[in-house]
Each structure stands twice: as structure tokens, then as C-alpha cells.
Design goal:
Blueprint: H1 15-23, H2 36-60, H3 65-87, H4 94-122, H5 132-139, H6 142-160, H7 169-184, H8 191-202, H9 204-229, H10 244-250
Helix pairs in contact: 2-4, 3-4, 3-7, 4-6, 6-7, 9-10
């Protein structure tokens, strides 16, 4: 049996052409070959490969309308969770929001765990992540490690309130940092941090001058407040500004 394999991905073509080339993988059979079962099996594997490529593109890339819609959806979920977590720290609102917050975090934890499994599975569309060693290489990426640690933290937090169906007081104090980390992980490619790094490197001289001037104003203002608020007689010095360090903290 002779099979003419076509190139699956070429750098000069767009995504639709890539999909067409992937679907055509193993599909060009010899005219004298009538093995329909093998033909269907080959096309089935080709379709699975295309699905992996699509899922990986949506989850790991930031291009296209579908990818933008998905990341906006995840951004909205994490933002709502962060807002509810902050409001639940108010004593007047806590009895009403304890149960909804707990079950909402449970749903989000299951959702992000399923998303993580999809990321690991779809990474097989790339040659460097196709084997088990490649999967371990993919999992060892800093972003994936952050996802795993965040999921582990939420799992432990949910386990502490499993019986009551709500978060204990101690867990509520640890919940906002986890929600903030999950909120920051929306930027998968770290593009915003790269832009910030570029700005710092480009304008490092201006930032250094601004830092020095700010420190000079801090010292001068603290000393003036100390002179104005401190009595001449040390025995009468009963105010809040008993030293320059106190005025610096106030400033």
C-alpha cells in the first residue's frame, strides 16, 4: 500500500489552508487500493488532529474572534468571582453571599480543571509536545505550573468548607490572593508584562530621576511635619508624630 503524505503545516499559509492540509493527511490513497476501513481510520485521526489544533489555538493563542470571545468570557468569570470575594468580606453581606460564593468557586474550580486537561491534551498537535516527555515539558511551563498551584489552593479552600457549604473565616482571608492570581493568569502570553518591561527599560533614566525626586520630597515633607507637630518640650510631646519616622509613615 502506497500512501502519499502531504505537508501538514507550512509557514506561508493561513489557518484555513493548514486545516485543509491536515484533513488531507493520509487521504491521498493509491488508486488501486480499496481498503475503505483504513481510509476511514486515517480520516478519523486527521479530524482528531484538526480538533486538537483548533482547541490549542483557542486556549493558548490570542488571535481570532473565537479566541477573543473565549478569553473575554474567562475574564468576566474571574472578575465576577473577584468582586464577590471582596464583597463577602463585609459583615453585613457575608451571610447572604457565603453559599453562592462557595458553590460559584466550586463550579469555577471544575471549569478550570477541565480547561487545564484540555490544554495538556491539545498540546499534542505540536511535535515538541507529542510524546509523554513532551507533555511533561508542556506541564513544566511557568504558566501551567501557576495554573496547577492555583487549582490546588482552591481545592484545599473548598475542602475546608465542604461540610458547611461555605468558606470558614480563615479561608476567606486567603481567598482574595488566589482570586487575584487567577485573574492575572488570563493573559496567557504575558503580553502586558512584556510591554511594561519594555517601558521600564526604555525610560529607565526618567524613572530613576522621578524616584530620587520623590524620595527628596518625602524626606523634606516628613521633617516639616515633624517640626510643625512636635512640641519644643519633650514632656508635652503626646501626639502621633513623636519622631521623623512617624511623619515619614504618615507621608
Amino acid at each position: 500500500m502506497s500512501i502519499r503524505r502531504k505537508s501538514t503545516i507550512s509557514h506561508g499559509h493561513n489557518l484555513s489552508q493548514r486545516r485543509a492540509s491536515v484533513v488531507s493527511l493520509y487521504s491521498a490513497l493509491d488508486p488501486h487500493d480499496h481498503d475503505d476501513d483504513y481510509h476511514r481510520l486515517s480520516r478519523w485521526f486527521s479530524v482528531i488532529f484538526v480538533q486538537k489544533l483548533d482547541i490549542y489555538h483557542v486556549l493558548e493563542r490570542q488571535e481570532g474572534k473565537r479566541t477573543l470571545a473565549y478569553h473575554l468570557f474567562v475574564f468576566a468569570l474571574t472578575l465576577i468571582s473577584l468582586v464577590f470575594g471582596s464583597i463577602s468580606t463585609i459583615k453585613a453581606w457575608r451571610p447572604k453571599l457565603d453559599a453562592p460564593l462557595y458553590y460559584g468557586e466550586l463550579v469555577l474550580c471544575i471549569f478550570f480543571a477541565f480547561e487545564l486537561l484540555l490544554r495538556i491534551w491539545s498540546a499534542g498537535c505540536l511535535g515538541q509536545y507529542r510524546t509523554w516527555v513532551g507533555r511533561l515539558k508542556f506541564i513544566s511551563r511557568p504558566v501551567i505550573i501557576l495554573d496547577i498551584l492555583t487549582l490546588l489552593g482552591f481545592t484545599i479552600s473548598l475542602g475546608t468548607g465542604m461540610k458547611a457549604g461555605e468558606f470558614p473565616t480563615i479561608t476567606l482571608k486567603c481567598l482574595p490572593p488566589l482570586q487575584m492570581i487567577r485573574f492575572l493568569r488570563v493573559d496567557r502570553q504575558l503580553s502586558s508584562w512584556k510591554v511594561l518591561k519594555g517601558i521600564i527599560i526604555t525610560h529607565r533614566q526618567e524613572l530613576t530621576v522621578t524616584l530620587v525626586i520623590s524620595f527628596m520630597f518625602l524626606i523634606t515633607g516628613s521633617y516639616l511635619v515633624y517640626l510643625a507637630e512636635t512640641s519644643v518640650d519633650p514632656k508635652l510631646n503626646t501626639g502621633s508624630f513623636r519622631s521623623v519616622a512617624d511623619t515619614m509613615w504618615f507621608s
